[in-house]
Amino acid sequence: xxxxxxxxxxxxxxxxxxxxxxxxxxxxxxxxxxxxxxxxxxxxxxxxxxxxxxxxxxxxxxxxxxxxxxxxxxxxxxxxxxxxxxxxxxxxxxxxxxxxxxxxxxxxxxxxxxxxxxxxxxxxxxxxxxxxxxxxxxxxxxxxxxxxxxxxxxxxxxxxxxxxxxxxxxxxxxxxxxxxxxxxxxxxxxxxxxxxxxxxxxxxxxxxxxxxxxxxxxxxxxxxxxxxxxxxxxxxxxxxxxxxxxxxxxxxxxxxxxxxxxxxxxxxxxxxxxxxxxxxxxxxxxxxxxxxxxxxxxxxxxxxxxxxxxxxxxxxxxxxxxxxxxxxxxxxxxxxxxxxxxxxxxxxxxxxxxxxxxxxxxxxxxxxxxxxxxxxxxxxxxxxxxxxxxxxxxxxxxxxxxxxxxxxxxxxxxxxxxxxxxxxxxxxxxxxxxxxxxxxxxxxxxxxxxxxxxxxxxx
Length: 459
What we know:
By secondary structure, the chain is mainly alpha-helical. It is built from 20 helices and 6 strands. β1 (69-70) and β2 (77-78) form a beta hairpin.
C-alpha cells in the first residue's frame, strides 16, 4: 500500500522538534546521543590532521576573514559555513564516524555546523544537545522512510546499493539534518525552520561514484555547510518552500518515491528512537563499514611470521569494495582485499595501516597477489546482516558477521572512551581527553558547554 503524503509533514516535524525537552527523552537514547557526539568529536580532531583537510585548508586560506571562527587546531579564520564544511569533511575523511541503519553517516553533517556555531558563541549546552538530537533523528527518519525504494535499487547492483539512482546517503539526508540542527541552535522561529529545511532539500546531492576518493568526505562537508547556509539565508529573508519534504517534487518524491513512509518522519521525531532502534554502530578501525567485518574475520588468521600462500575472501555483492590493488589510501579503506591482507599480515589495523608507505610496501603488494575475492548473492548486502568468510590454502577458515562496536556486539563504555583518547592523543593528554569526555557527557549541565568549547578553541 502506498504511503499517503501528509500535507504538513515538514511543519509537523519542526513543531515536534521544537517541543523536545531533554528531561523527557528516554535516558538510554540520550546517553547514546552523547556517545555518538563524543565519538564524532574525537574523529573530527583526528580527521583535522588528514591530508584531505590539509588540501582544503590551502584552498580556503584565500577566503580567510578576521571576523570568522578560528579553525580548530590552527590559526586560520574562516566563515562559519566554510568552517562547517571543513569540519564535516574532517569527521568523514577516514570513514571512521558512527554508522546508522539504513546506512548513512548522520553525525558529520549535524555535528560540524553545530561546532562552528558554538565557536561563535551561539546557544547553550542544552540547546546544542537538543539541536544535535533533532538533526540526527531527521536524517535517520528520512533514511528509514525511503528504505522501500532502497530495496528496489539494491537489486540492480549497478550503483551504490543502498540509495536510489546512486546517490550517497549523507549527501542526500545530511543537508536536511544540518538545517534542522542549525536552525534550532540559532533559535529561528518555526516558519523559518520549515523554509530552511525546504532550501536544504535543494542542496541534497552526492554521487557514489566518488566513493574511495577524497571527494567522498566532501559529501558530508557540503551537507554540513548547505544546512547551515540554508538557515542563515532564510534567517536573512530568503524565501523557500515550507513543504520541502512532502511537496510536489519534494525530497520524499525525489529520493523516496511512491513508497516513501511519511508517518516515519512524524513518529520518529516524537519517539526519538533512532539512538536505540537500531542505534549506531561505532567503528573500531578507520575504514568502510563492511571492512570492519572483513577485518574481524581477517585478524583470526594472524600468526606472526606466517603468511598464507592463498587467501580467499567471500563477501556480499559490494562492487565498489572490489579493489584488488588500491591506488591510494582512500581507495584502500574500501578494499576487501587490502583490509583482509593487512589484518593477516600485521595482526592489527590502525591509521598507519592506510599510509602510502604501507600500501606500497613489498609485503603488502606480495600478499595482495595471493588474495582472491568472491562476491556471493547468497550473503545479504546489509551491514546489519552480512558476513565475511575467509579461507586459506592451509585449510583454515574464519567467519564474522560483526565486530566490537557493531549492532550485534555493542562497544563498552571503556572501549568508546579509549577510542576517543586515541583519536585526540596528538592534541590532548589522556587526562585532557577524559576531561573533555566528561564535558560532553554532561554538556547540558552547568558550564560544561563553555568549558568544552574553550578546550576545543585551544587545541
